[in-house]
Amino acid sequence: MSNLSARTIAFQAQERNVFFHILTGCNLSCQHCYINTEQHGSNTLSAETIAKWLKLFAHPEKKTNLVLLGGEPTLHPELPFAVQAAKSLRYNTITIDTNGFLHNSLLEKINPHDAVLSFSLDGPSSEVNDAIRGDGVFSVCTENLQKAVQAGFEVSVIYTVSAINLAHLHKMPSLLKKFGVSHFFIQVIGLRGKSAENSSEAPLQITPKQWLDTVPQIAQEAAESGLHVIYPKVFLEENETFECAGNVAENFFIFPNGRVYQCPLCEDYPLNSHKIENDELITRDGLTEKNLFSLNIQEGCVMNKLLQGGNIEYLPSGQPKHRISCCLLKQEISPR
Q1: Distance (Å, rounded) from C-alpha 64 to C-alpha 93?
Q2: What is the CATH number that goes with domain 7-241+325-333?
Q3: pTM as predicted
Q4: pLDDT digits over 253-298, tens only?
Q5: Is 37 helix (H, G, I), strand (E, B) or coil?
């Protein structure tokens, strides 16, 4: 029986996380893609703009973690430049989230010590993964993932749990260990982008019971096998206090059209707290996500209640069956 237990990663006031979408274009069309070009733009930022925007969020006095995203960020020919620009600005960690195609010969153009490569893989086989991400994706992603490990990169895998692949999650730890992966991120699917559009036709979300009965146990098994595992807190225990990252932490979600959000749940709406105009960061007036962070409700996360209220189950008394945590609150299980 495992004696490893998950710990909640508390929000750190002196830590900043910058999620920078340098473009929104992608070579895939995944069922749960959250990119919404109407809200996020469809342009590709120039190298000059990337450098200027990175400078806006650099803060050498604080630990600042950078995640470079798309769409598919490796489609951007200036991605290696972006990594070097971030290094020169003293970002503490640099992660590239990729679908695994590694365009523009990325492995040959960046140093393995300069960035972590985080691969999206939503199944332990082509039958499962490719039903979500497209024909042939599993083969390409796993081949390039192994090349990255062999080249000396720190490699992690993100698995977005859905109704399609939940039953196959338990097969992932052994597969990742075989590939030499060190970190495993289990993600919950959100009602954003395509998931929101298709929620009434073919729901991808799983129930609270399915999540609680499955994910924590498999996360423990993955850690027992030697993986470092992180997954969303999702539901609060009775004695836990709700905290919103928008109030107690610094997280910025930057899009190519200049919108800057603090809460990812808001990204389908023009509720962004900040915007970038003429390469300057401006705090927006009027009603934005920031005005809502301080609201205290029995359901926990006010954004979840407002934007994804269908996720919440209620008891006959009218009390929520589960309180929803901030979507940025994580659980971590370190290997032995």
Answers
A1: 7
A2: 3.20.20.70
A3: 0.95
A4: 999 999 999 999 999 999 999 999 999 999 999 999 999 999 999 9
A5: helix
